[in-house]
Design goal:
The radius of gyration is 12 Å and the shape is globular. It starts with a helix and ends with a helix. It is built from three helices and no strands. The mean pLDDT is about 95. α1 crosses α2, α1 runs antiparallel to α3 and α2 crosses α3.
Length: about 70
């Protein structure tokens, strides 16, 4: 069970990373894309490639000690 803010944030980042991977394979979703949300969160430009976004999310996930 996720009870601490760190666990919740880690889960959020892991799900965002999975969604970005699916988007990179061509899957679409309604509303704002996971890649756009991730780029905004990481402070990357709108033209940042998917691998850079995934790498940034991975680094953030690893920085959270749960």
């Amino acid at each position: 069970m996720l009870t601490t803010p760190e666990q919740i944030e880690r889960y959020r980042l892991v799900t965002l990373r999975a969604a970005v991977r699916l988007e990179s394979l061509g899957m679409k979703k309604r509303g704002k894309s996971a890649a756009a949300i991730s780029r905004e969160l990481l402070g990357l430009s709108r033209s940042a490639p998917f691998p850079a976004v995934i790498e940034g999310l991975t680094q953030r996930i690893e920085a959270i000690n749960v």
